[in-house]
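@channel sequence for tomorrow's demo:
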Amino acid sequence: MAGGMTIEKYFLDDVYMVCNNSLKYPEFVGYDLETYGKIKVGAISGSGMTDVLLPSGSFVTLPWVNALSDPQGFYNNVSYRVDRRTNITGVLNLNINVSCSANNMPGTLSANGTWQMRLLDTGSSLPVSTRAIQSYIFFFDQLQQSRTGGINTTYELGTEFIFEDVPAGNYYFQIRQSPNFPSSVAALPVVTMDPQGTTKSYIQIKEVKQVIDGLVMDIPSNMPFGTTGIKQIDFIKGLQKKYNLVIYQDKTQQNRFIIETFNDWYDGEVKDFNSFINLNEPIECIPANNLAVNQLNFSDTLDTDYISQQFSKAANREYGKSYFIDEQNFFSQGSFDVKTTFASGPLVRIAGTGLSGSVGGINPPPTSENYVGGCRYGYTFDAQETCTSPAYIQTYTTTGYLETGLIVYRDQYGNNPILNLRYVTGPSGGIIYELNDATGMIGSETGYYC
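structure tokens (generated this afternoon):
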């Protein structure tokens, strides 16, 4: 290989490569990841979007059309657009007036009481990612235990949420409240959203997880920048060492360098020096073998990412480092290091990642498990503590449900059973099951509920 490239003088100065000045998010053509899918919508006073009743036991579509923030137009006509299968995180803030007796509040820790939210496909009317609003349930459960008589009070309640594994489509946001007892036992609570024309309620999508899964990343557009990346001269040196290149200045054209492989550059003419040697004088000859080194070490710069560090600890060497030892030349001695300015690391998938969204790896195995949802797992001896456990894990089983005798997995391929936990309950609460902590197999019902 031989060729030339023009390099202006400033290229070799002590400056850094400035390819991307906005590396908070990776750069992909056609995608602005900083605001992708992010919205915040609420009500407009006097437009039918306030004083909305939330009847017990029924899902209600959030009727808001006031786009407080929607930079990329993902919200239209009360529906939210999802372009590809993904997880979605956000915040729901409700300003509600509750009028009820103290023993029949909306959504408590009882068999019937609940607060739920979900997505509803605008085309098929199929619900997606239904989940309990745990913070609302605990709030009203504690309120019920501390009150007697009745209440008629306005509350402003906020909660974070996650919608898992949402397919591409257009969706309505829906919520539902259900009290402890049906109307035949006690008067149902009256729950009014944004009472008296207030507009404090809103829903906000803060992050869309799987946006560019499977797309090709343009590396030059995502190079580091500023004074913390790689210097321009170091980048050239790294290429030179990596591919054993010879770079020299063009003597006929200013600001131009010639780049050749070492073998092409070294391949010259054979010259006869006999006419320049005085054979009458003593001749001292140093064999070329004496100039050779015994060990050549080729390596890249050690990276600080998680995978490279784990490899270095396990293998007791840097990834990509290779050694060549001269076992034939007795006179070779010493060592010589060839180290580039680049970092390299093994291409592996960390367990529990890369299995959601649109990509399951190259040639993924057939899916054997079905998605249950985000389940809570108990790790203490008290089964009821499962309801408030921080162990919240995306769960798969053979049927897509929690059933005695099935094994719970972290992935849809059935490779990673969920171990070392004692109890499990479903995405919307309900029955608490025993769990074999050694195998991940679901056991008997405990008799407790979330």
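heads up for whoever presents: Residues 6-11, 355-362 have pLDDT under 50 and may be disordered.
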